[in-house]
Amino acid sequence: MKLQPKKEHPKEKTRLHPRNKHRERYDFKQLIAVCPELAPYVTLNKYDDESVDFFNPDAVKMLNKALLAAYYDIGYWDIPENYLCPPIPGRADYIHTIADLLGSQQYGKIPTGEKIKCLDIGVGANCVYPIIGVKEYGWSFIGSDIDPVAIASAQKIIDENAILQGKVELRLQPNAEDIFKGILQKDELVDLTICNPPFHASLAEAQAGTLRKLTNLTEKKTTKPILNFGGHPNELWYEGGERVFAANMIMQSKEFASNVFWFSTLISKQTHLKMVYAELRYAEAVDVKTFPMGQGNKSSRLVAWTFLSPDAQKEWVKARWQE
To answer: HSE of 153 in the Cβ direction (CA atoms, 13 Å)?
Structure first.
């Protein structure tokens, strides 16, 4: 069989954040050295490059395991079957981008260490955002989720990795309608909240989106929805989709205006931004920031907001971030 001409790949994924450890192409020899179980999944693709089959959920999961071992000192990592297996480079981009936002309050100096507390809304079974935030900046995390199975999985990851112990606390959200209430205590302060909201409005829409993604990956029409990155229903869809979830989050964040410095969320659809900005105006957010995010052909954006006045922001930084 004749190989197709070798495709020229850029040496760096320039759409990723400059501090992102995944800007260069994957070094599979290095990854297999730290995670030998990856070896059976690595093959030569049609361009004669080493790669994994992104159509295969087991291959994607093993690649994640290798990346977390190689770059984030994670010796044990696993997730239950059919739970979300997120792309690590995109998750790292969120953490680095939000770190820059915190740094902008201190003339570019990013606050680090356990004193910086982050709430990950929907931590999931994979616990990936806390893993990256702890390793890169030493932050401490609260991880919330409505799913007891996800919480149990994330807790096992924490228990099995010394780097996470004492840095990540998990809290089960008792009411699926609440986002902050039931998680944050009345007088508890956190420096930032992060969220990757459910994207789709229904299970059918989630499956249709998966079919489109797999068709693009395989370059041929796919009719069977295999979730290569997995995903439990509450991870993939929410009644009304991302638009309604974001609106609810903004509305509910007002109640915790003095508990949090920066609230933030990913917004996948450009068309949702107009609604997001309208909701933030209605909620009387003092400051709103938007950051473009991109990985491969996928574009997204991170929206952050605060209710703290400029004077209150300075007081917060002085009281919590400075030695």
So the answer is: 22
Q: Which residues pair with 190 in a beta bridge?
A: 260
Could you read off the pLDDT tens digit of each residue along the chain, which spans 323 residues? 455 555 555 566 778 999 999 999 899 999 999 999 999 999 887 777 888 888 888 999 999 999 999 999 999 999 998 898 888 999 999 999 999 999 999 999 999 999 999 999 999 999 999 999 999 999 999 999 999 999 999 999 999 999 999 999 999 999 999 999 999 999 999 999 999 987 544 444 444 444 444 445 445 554 544 444 454 554 443 466 788 899 999 999 999 999 999 999 999 889 999 999 999 999 999 999 999 987 666 788 999 999 999 999 999 999 999 87
| Pairwise CA distance, residues 178 & 148, whole Å | 16
Spans of all domains in the chain: 80-321
Q: Looking up tokens 């990540």, which residue turns up?
A: 168
Fold of 80-321: Rossmann fold (3.40.50)
